[in-house]
Amino acid sequence: MDIRQLRTFVTVAQLSSVTKAAEALHITQPAVSGQLKALEDELQVRLLSRTTSSVTLTQSGQALLARAEQAIEAFGSFTNLARSLRGQIDGQFRLGVVMLDPSALRLGQLLQGMVQHHPALRIDVQVGRTSWLLDALRSAEIDGALLVCKTRPPGTRILLLDEMIFRLVIPASWGPDYDGSSLDQLAHVPWIRVAPRSGHREILQDILKDSHIRPVETVEADHEQLMRTLVAAGVGVGLMRDDLAHQARAASELNFFGDHKATTRLVFAYDEGRAGDQAIQVVLGMLADIWNIEAPGAVSSATASRELSP
Fold first, then answer.
1. CA distance 248 to 231
2. Fold adopted by 3-85
3. Which residue intervals define the domain HTH lysR-type in the entry (predicted)?
4. pLDDT tier at 310 (50, 70, 90 boundaries)?
5. pLDDT tens string 190-210
6. Strand (E) positions, the chain?
7. Calpha distance 226→229 (Å, rounded)
8. Which residue of 78, 149, 273, 286 has the fewest C-beta atoms within 10 A of its own C-beta?
């Protein structure tokens, strides 16, 4: 038994789907099925009941799920403690990145600085959904993550880099009938679905909090360039970063739906147990320089104001 098998079991249980679990874990569906079978064979316990359309926990699976989650978290804590005790960069830094335009994240500047100043450090960049980034941080599968969120994820420390505005956009082909005067106009048209447990979901909830509509969600899209393409094609209502939305409107691909928008935050998040880790400190210092913000570790009201509430 290894930690990957436990993580696969937990992910399938949470998503109730082998297909979605494979996507979230960045592995193939046969690999997911193989890890589940190996785990069940070793335990000699059936954990999941699978049909052609769904995956559900067996009674034994339900009993073991919480323990599996605890084991993953304990493994992450063990790994992080071992690294902090070592007190030095071990040659690899695994950076998780949310699915936004890398230039908006200033990712190129960060990686160029790390390569230039720490040539012995091997950097592994992994792009994924917010939900995967948070789970991977908890289980120590990545060392830090650039993501968008309104609240500080539990068990992490964060450095606030910038604020971002996202707005509702509609296909240009829909014409003037949708003038943005009321969200009720969008009650019966298709929406492009945003992922659960994501910064985009938080933003959408903020925009819709004073309305009574429940979006008719269709195609799911996390990557913002895919969102732009789908809105331009007339698939449905979308949620888009303000800068990108202005570019797309200038290209006559879409229209703003009134002034319906909300603000979120771009942060660098890492496990709170790794605050003293040398590699984390290197990344924090570089991000502070790139974003022209106060260097982490300085005690000041400016630094304190950059901490998000839990």
1. 10
2. Arc Repressor Mutant, subunit A (1.10.10)
3. 1-58
4. very low
5. 999 988 888 888 999 999 998
6. 48-50, 55-57, 92-97, 122-127, 144-149, 156-171, 190-193, 216-220, 238-241, 254-271
7. 5
8. 78
